[in-house]
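Anyone else keep sequences and structure tokens together like this?

Example one:
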Amino acid sequence: MATVSRTQSLSTAHLRVRQTYTHRSGSNIARQIELGFRLALTREVREGEKEVLKQFHQEQSIERALDSTQPEKETHRQALIQVCRIIFNLNEFVYAD
């Protein structure tokens, strides 16, 4: 079994999720979170989880908009990357020894 670095895994996962998100959910953050949970954790997101992540996304979008001159679409994308990192870092994965 080939060893893949954490950085490579995150980069590959980020690209796949971004492409899939764009195709399946457009720019609707609630649908993006739902899709992220299905893809990464193979389960539905709980309503409380979704609300927390929506709030986090909104805060990140505002923070990034205040700190940069990037267009709104880019601040949304950067905030979504942070949401994806949270989902990927949830301890719900099965590891094979």
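And example two:
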Amino acid sequence: MSISRKRSGPYSRWRIGSLTAAVVALVLLVPTAMAGDIDNATCMGCHDDVGEQFAQTPHGTYLTSRPALAEFSCESCHGSGMQHVEDPSPANILNPAN
């Protein structure tokens, strides 16, 4: 993985491979800020098809191919799943695509 400076100045961006530093920072900070008490096994109890599809996406491939990122859970992107577990509805879980 190469790291290069795209341009100079206070508004320059670092590029790390094909990811910008902003995306890397988000991936590293979101799990700590948003993780709750629901583990992936609980999510997969109802959403096993989604979990299998996610594993085939670029995000899923990246996360599963790096042992240091194994701590990431569904809640890393979807927020706390506690309310969704108690009342399963699309309205009470964060959908990052929306």
